[in-house]
Amino acid sequence: MARRVTGPEIERLIQLLARLPGLGPRSARRAALQLVKRRDQLLAPLTDAMRTVHDHVRVCSVCGNVDTADPCTVCTDPTRDASVIVVVEDVADLWALERAGAVNARYHVLGGVLSPLSGIGPDDLDIAGLVERAADPVVKEVILAVNATVDGQTTAHYVTDRLDGLGVKVTRLAHGVPVGGELDYLDEGTLTAAIRSRTPF
Whole-prediction pTM value? Predict the structure, then answer.
């Protein structure tokens, strides 16, 4: 049995860090060691930043993004195209699209996907809020930017049905061969989607 080499305070820090996505026990231990060794340069500023986030971050009541303002910076940006709403599963997806700079529209975070096996139904997601926003005459298009999983596609079909009759165009992200991808390394589902979504050259 391994002996404990640190006090309970550091062990608690390691355990909390290990709960973060992408950090297992070993990575959490290394991160904790760096924080402790560089307390003035890393630990103190990180503690201040986390306290500020805890005290000031809110969930946007319009789109579901997280920000220090409500409505959020995206929703109040006058340069964005208000006629297009990009629907995403999670805030992380919103951030990914923003990093890519691929679209200058408004967003709507569903808060997950429909998953009968996990007990997640329509009332557990913010689909009603999306329908209400899409009913605004300003909105002309809703882009479904959900993941290409079974649950993601089920959600996309359900949302499409709910938006039917509102007079908005509903589109989805193209699925298929990634930029720089080689056919030999792709799975059959991706190849099939790429063939079905082929475009003129």
Answer: 0.82
